[in-house]
Each structure stands twice: as structure tokens, then as C-alpha cells.
User: Fold DUF4350 domain-containing protein from Methanofollis liminatans DSM 4140.
Amino acid sequence: MQGRFVAAAAVLLVLALAAGVHLFTTYDDYSRHNIQWNGTSSFFSHLEDRGAHEVWRPADLGGYNDAVLIVIAPQGSPDAEQIAAYRAFLARNNTVVLCDDFGSGNEFLAAVGSGITILPGNLTSVDRDYADGAAVRGYRAGNHTLVENVSTVLFNRPAALKGGTPLLQTSLLSWVDRNSNGRIDGDEVVSRYPVCAVERVGGGEVIVIGDPGIFLNAMSGFSGENRQFIEALISLRPVLLVDQGWSRTASAGAPTAAVRLAKEYPLLQIAVAGLFIGAAAYFFRKRIIR
Assistant:
């Protein structure tokens, strides 16, 4: 009888673990909780190892100096409180790295007073490593700590940039494929297009990377120079911050969101712990009575 109980408990434990993995994993693009190719779980694991601080609300930016804030795939329009916090952050001579292609990055750039613009259209190049013309390489084009040890970075469907000082740009055989037909036609111009640019803004520094896809799990195994570029990015300043309140990387399933909520409110943690303790006490009391 006892053997059957142990076997049943083992089976239930395995099922519970499998269900937990499923429930606490999401398949949303860019999510840090997504372990598939289109998630950023590997990158965020590295950030945790580096002691990165998470920024969930505008007030979290207060007091930081000599810091770099990474914003990946922003979602939704930034509100007035966010803009004020970002401006104040930049005014203290900090760095904001915005990684976006076709999200709401332009609204942020205009609001903080940046002259950099993320251009619409699919940036395509003849000079590529794969059959897909959107697998574009960016070549070093400027002098900056971010690119001093990098000659080329592979991008995944990046957006072209306008304004600022280019740090990485495509080869000459590139164009913005506005009609997505894979050919150069109409008013599409063959040229070098910036995919990473920097600008001094409000006393600080804004760096724009036209591709949040370089942080995806699928890109983590590519060339060593991609890894060097990301390592240089997170090492720009002594203090490393990552935005979670305005980024698609924070997307999570309901169970993960519930756990995160509990972590933010100690009283809720006590209440949940009390429920579990009460349930366990009731279960063992029933067994003792039997």
C-alpha cells in the first residue's frame, strides 16, 4: 500500500513539474520567459549574472548615475511620466540604448529631443550571409567604445536609421525595400544605411540599434563579434539597467505574472504562505485522525 502511495506521488510530482514548465513559459516574441528561438531568455540569464537592475516604473530611474539603460522592443506610447524620467536620466549624463525596428521607438526619440529616426521599410542587402536578404550585416562606421573591438555585426531584419552619428552601417549594396518584393525598383535607393547610431541628448547619450532581434535566443549562437558587441553594450557604464515596464521582453503568462506580483508585495507573500501552511496543516491533521 505504501509503495503504491509513493509511486502515485512520484507520478503526480512529474506531472506537476511538466505542467509548471508549460504554465510558466510563454511563446511571445522577445519575452524573457520564452525559451524558444524567438525569446530572450538566454540574454536575460546573462543580464542576471551581470547583476543588472530592472526598471519597472519611471520612478525606478531616479538617483542612478554613470548608468546605461537598455530598452528592447518598446511597446505602446511612452506617457508624460516616462518621458520626464528619461529626460532626467539623460540629464545626469547617463546612456539610453534603444533597440527597436517598427515599434514606438520614434515617439520616445522625438520626446527626449533626439534627432535620430527609425525609418519604415525592410532594409535589404545583396551583401548577406544567408539566402534571406534581410539577414543584413552592419560594418563599423564610427569611433565609440561600443564598436571598438567589432568590425561587423549580423542583424535580423533591421530597420535603417536617419540622423545621429553612425556606428554601424550596411554595405553599399543595400536598399530599403518598401514594397517587400526583394528587388530594387521605383524610388528605392542603393546606399549605405546606418543600423546603429549615437547622439548626445540632454546632457547624456542616446544609442539607437535598429534591431531588437539581435538579443533573440536564435541569434545567441552566431558570430563571436555579435557576442562581443552585446558584451560591449552591457559594459558601457558601471551600472547596468534594463527596462521592463515598457518592453515586450517583460511579457509573461498568468502564473509568472502572479509570481512577479507576489514578489512586489510582501503582505501578499505572507498571505500566500499562510494559505499553503494552512492547507498543509489541514492535510496532515486529516491523516493523523485517520
Remarks:
- The chain has seven helices and 13 strands.
- The helical segments are 2-23, 41-49, 80-91, 105-112, 224-234, 254-264, 266-289.
- Residues 253-290 form one domain.
- Residues 46 and 52 are 9 Å apart (CA to CA).
